[in-house]
Specification:
Keywords: Amino-acid biosynthesis, Arginine biosynthesis, Cytoplasm, NADP, Oxidoreductase. Catalyzes the NADPH-dependent reduction of N-acetyl-5-glutamyl phosphate to yield N-acetyl-L-glutamate 5-semialdehyde. GO terms for molecular function: N-acetyl-gamma-glutamyl-phosphate reductase activity. With about 325 residues, this protein is α/β, with parallel strands linked by helices. It folds into 2 domains: about 130 residues, NAD(P)-binding Rossmann-like Domain (Rossmann fold, 3-Layer(aba) Sandwich); about 160 residues, Dihydrodipicolinate Reductase, domain 2, CATH 3.30.360.10. The chain contains 9 helices and 13 strands. Helix 2 crosses helix 3 and helix 4 crosses helix 9. It binds NADPH dihydro-nicotinamide-adenine-dinucleotide phosphate and N-acetyl-L-glutamyl 5-phosphate. The site of N-acetyl-L-glutamyl 5-phosphate has 10 residues, from strand 9.
């Protein structure tokens, strides 16, 4: 009998870890857990890593870097190092890591399959890169164009600390943050959308648990060629036509941010005022779905060569 691959989730009790654990039930894998009382014990975690085929890191950035160091030491000691999928921000632009957005290009699924180390995309970059990269690749959005990105997330995006604060206090209904304009996702968006000019990114949080809209306003008369909203939509449709997770939808006058809560899919739209040559591109997703745990399951399936056997949530 063929043995099921073994997966260890470091940070299994956190928001992203729990979402991945739940979704792993749909894959033919065995989950290796450590005793909850030892979940932060380096010795117990190193043992679990050495016994696994794939380690999923659902930790804060610094703890992720330490965990990768532990796996490096397993390899240096002559052990068989497991593959790594990292959910943190630590390695999303790091050399030697493959970016875990399978829809990025036609070659990306194969690159993820072959990789030893994959970084799971950030929730906001998932929407921004999905909208911008095909248009940059097509030469329609110039790589050095001044791009602004606005986004709103559900409060689970801030992990346990923000969830507890929002649920204890009733939370502020809406707040802009990252107003020092150096949010940790900017380098990731810039690199994977292939922009040469740093985009301006303004995130926000609303008092709802799950959901996200990322929006990118464009003045069509500033693009490289004369194009219409229908042209932009055509390029996005061509890129995502085969994807079970990403779809291009009809524009709507109103979008609610939490409509895809509980789903691992993402919806893209092109909203146009043709008379004024204005377009707003939007991506709607669940920050914990395609923005985190749902994307992780896509990557785990590719990295282990297993199939979910059912359609995405
Ligand atoms: N929430 C989201 O929407 C998304 C989050 N991510 C990324 O996933 C990672 C985890 O985020 P999230 O799940 O939201 O955060 P949480 O705070 O909900 O979970 C993090 C977990 O890691 C545990 N932990 C912290 N330090 C260590 C350590 N040294 N050893 C073992 N366990 C440790 C925490 O335990 P304790 O609580 O006891 O400290 C907690 O269980 C982050 O890097 C984040 O950027 C990715 C995509 C989206
Ligand atoms: C609402 C909120 O606080 N969101 C987080 C982003 C989510 C996250 O930390 O995880 P990823 O990097 O994997 O997306 C933030 O802005 O720092």
């Amino acid at each position: 009998m063929i043995q099921e691959p073994i997966v260890f989730i470091d940070g299994e009790a956190g928001t992203t870890g729990l979402g991945i654990r739940e979704r792993l039930m749909s894959l033919p894998v065995r989950i290796h857990s450590v005793d909850p009382t030892r979940r932060k014990d380096p010795e117990a975690r190193a043992e679990a890593m050495a016994a696994s085929d794939l380690v999923v890191l659902c930790l804060p950035d610094e703890a992720s870097r330490e965990a990768v160091g532990m796996i490096d030491r397993i390899a240096a000691g002559g052990g068989r190092a497991p593959k790594i999928l990292d959910a943190s921000t630590a390695f999303r632009t790091a050399p030697g890591w493959v970016y875990g957005f399978p829809e990025l290009t036609a070659d990306q699924p194969e690159a993820i399959m072959q990789a030893e180390r994959v970084s799971n995309p950030g929730c906001y970059p998932t929407g921004a890169v999905a909208l911008l990269r095909p248009l940059v690749d097509a030469g329609i959005v110039p790589a050095d164009m001044a791009i602004s990105i606005n986004a709103v997330s559900g409060y689970t995006g801030g992990g346990r600390t923000m969830i507890e604060a929002q649920e204890r206090d009733g939370g502020p209904p809406f707040l802009l943050y990252g107003l020092n304009l150096s949010h940790k996702h900017v380098p990731e968006i810039r690199e994977h959308a292939r922009l040469t000019r740093r985009p301006l990114f303004v995130p926000s949080v609303g008092h709802f648990p799950r959901g996200m809209i990322v929006s990118v306003p464009l003045h069509l008369d500033q693009l490289s060629r004369r194009v219409t909203g229908a042209d932009l939509r055509g390029i996005l449709e061509e890129r995502y036509v085969a994807s079970a997770f990403v779809s291009v939808c009809e524009a709507e006058p109103v979008l609610t941010a939490d409509a895809l809560a509980g789903s691992d899919r993402m919806e893209l739209r092109v909203h146009e005022d043709a008379h004024h040559h204005h377009v707003v591109l939007t991506a709607r997703l669940d920050n914990l779905g395609k923005g985190a745990s749902g994307a992780a399951i896509q990557n785990i399936a590719l990295m282990l060569g297993v199939s979910p056997g059912k359609a995405p949530l």
